[in-house]
What we know:
- With 105 residues, this protein is α+β, with helices and mostly antiparallel strands.
- The chain is 18% helix and 21% strand.
- The protein is built from 2 helices and 4 strands.
- The longest helix has 11 residues, at 2-12.
Amino acid sequence: MRFIVLFSMLTACGPAEVVDNQPPTPVPATLMTCETAEECVVLELGCCDHCNGGRAVAVRADAADDVQATYAESCAPGTACTEMGCAPLTADCDDGRCVTVQGEL
């Protein structure tokens, strides 16, 4: 009897949505080149922010709009993100490449 109830509950929800769990496409290194920290910005590219399972990258500021449009993930309908807080990220230029730097709380 328990099996029937559980089966009925699972099938009542309808077909499961197929989720594409492919790793995100990496941002090309050419969009991360820099000479100074002022040339770099941090972008949140994940469906959720970097504190809650998403990803953030540092890129050249002049490429930010293109990177956001090309590499940002979209949340599927009904997606819920955790709401954990963390220190903010800042961008820096390290050895000619924009990098993210985790701040302190």
